[in-house]
Amino acid sequence: MIEHNLTGKAILVNAELNKETAFTDAERRRYGLRGLLPPAIETIERQLERVLHQLAVKPSDIERYIYLASLADRNETLFFHTLMSDPSYFVPIVYDPTVAEACLKFGHIMRRSKGMYLTRHMKDEFVDILREWPVKDVRFICVSTGGRILGLGDIGANGMGIPIGKLQLYTACAGVPPGCMLPILLDIGTTNASLRADPLYLGLREEPPEEKEIDAIADAFVAAANDVFPGVCVHFEDWKGVDAMRLLARYRDNILCYNDDIQGTASIVLAGLITALQIKKEKLRDQRIAFFGAGSAGIGIANMIVSAMEEEGLSEAEARARISLMDVNGLIESGRTDLNAWQKPFARDAAATNDLLTVVKTFEPTILIGVSTIGGAFKQDVIEEMARLNDRPIIFPISNPTDKAECTAEQAYNWTNGKALYAAGVQFPDVEREGTVFHPGQANNFYIFPAIGLAVYATRPERITDGMFIAAARATADQVDETARNKGMLFPLQADILQTEVTTATRIAEYIFDTGMASVERPTDIRAWIEGLLYQPRYREI
Ligand SMILES: O=C([O-])CC(=O)C(=O)O
Ligand SMILES: [Mg+2]
């Protein structure tokens, strides 16, 4: 039973309460809905049929995205029922890659405002403004400045599509109840001059301030969020890389927060590597890993790999020596004077170069990871060299959306004679080659952050640690069985995403209890307890 004091039309425009044609006769009488609805009384399954019919006649995924966004505004239950009925079909529509197009066009396609917009000019009033949010028990805030959205760069307030989409996946992929979530766009301005010149742009038409001011705004924001919503988890998403790393370091030991681009991405890449190395029957500690890209994702992955190698007995220095990074200015090597604090520990004593092929030839990596946002950066000669050096090269071009991937699945399989163990940030279709079907993996953090969310929702820890993300990686990898691995599959099936993430969340929760970080009592059966908390996309009595 949902508590409320609404009647008539007010119920039909409330997305949480609205059931449209599924209101029973008794509810229609009780709330004065009789003449406001057509006489048919339908099940949610019949309503889903109508949704699918309407989606089928849309000409493109962006149109389907717009339709689904309006459905979410109108009828939350039916929206999640739709997503959860076929996650492998719907995730690419409400999330990457379609959400990329939606963000680029955000000011043009917007219908109804969702979540909250806080601007830098409201800094002294963040508390009062957050109190305007109608829900008091907010447990998750996903906040972005839009400073680096996916591989699209700075798109300012257009980035709002990302906090909205990420939080929808907490529910669709891990069953976290949707009412406790708040997407926020923290508008600090944008460096994107063409957006600032677009008459339909919805954000501040200003350059962002300097780092010190950004930190002051972020400080005011996290303080206000914790003041208004005690116990809230702040999920940072798609900030400019250096801001992301600096602010994670600033807050991770002081408040309940995480950065999905740094920790979530690292966790899913680690999961893919664990599976790939199970296929190869090798250890992580023996690998040599080359990164093309050394921003927040690259550094996040590199650091998590170092931690995982340390667990296998290497020292930190030994682990770092097995990693080579490149950024736009070339190899991260000790002669560089432009390295940031997070890159410096990875500087190698090697000759300066900005040629990836040279790095591959000299460093001889077993694993190549792309986090550069430069589409097509893994050229044929680079991939062929990886195949010459390795019987089964591991190739992970993670940048997204699709046209930013450093190489496609088809290229990787063709250029390695089908030997590559491949995963990208977006889902590429299966590739058929000389009678064999290859299944490219999707190393996307959506396997991880909803499960972290569910575990945090259940156990209420005071901090989020890298250990939780490593536990999530291992749990995800453990769910790829031998039959799947034999087919070269690196991740669990997306069709089973809810079961997968509940299992992952159970493992994270166990870790949280084992390490004494939970603030609730340990139940005897953690999985059953977590299952009891899951949101069900079914109509409840009102
Ligand atoms: O959203 C995604 O698909 C992955 C991600 O975090 C990013 O690219 O920033
Ligand atoms: Mg992101």
Automatic annotation (TrEMBL):
Q: Where is the Malic enzyme NAD-binding domain?
A: 262-513
Q: SMART domains, per this entry?
A: malic, Malic_M
Residue ranges annotated for the Malic enzyme N-terminal domain, each copy included: 72-252
* Keyword presence, ATP-binding: no
Q: Which UniProt keywords apply?
A: Metal-binding, NAD, Oxidoreductase
**From the UniProt record, which GO molecular function terms apply?**
oxidoreductase activity
A Pfam family matched by this chain, by name?
Answer: malic
Q: Superkingdom of the source?
A: Bacteria
Q: What is its EC number?
A: 1.1.1.38
The record, for NCBIfam families, names: PRK13529.1
Q: Which PANTHER family match?
A: MALIC ENZYME-RELATED (PTHR23406), NAD-DEPENDENT MALIC ENZYME, MITOCHONDRIAL (PTHR23406:SF34)
Which family, according to UniProt? Answer: Belongs to the malic enzymes family.
**Protein name listed in UniProt:** Oxaloacetate-decarboxylating malate dehydrogenase
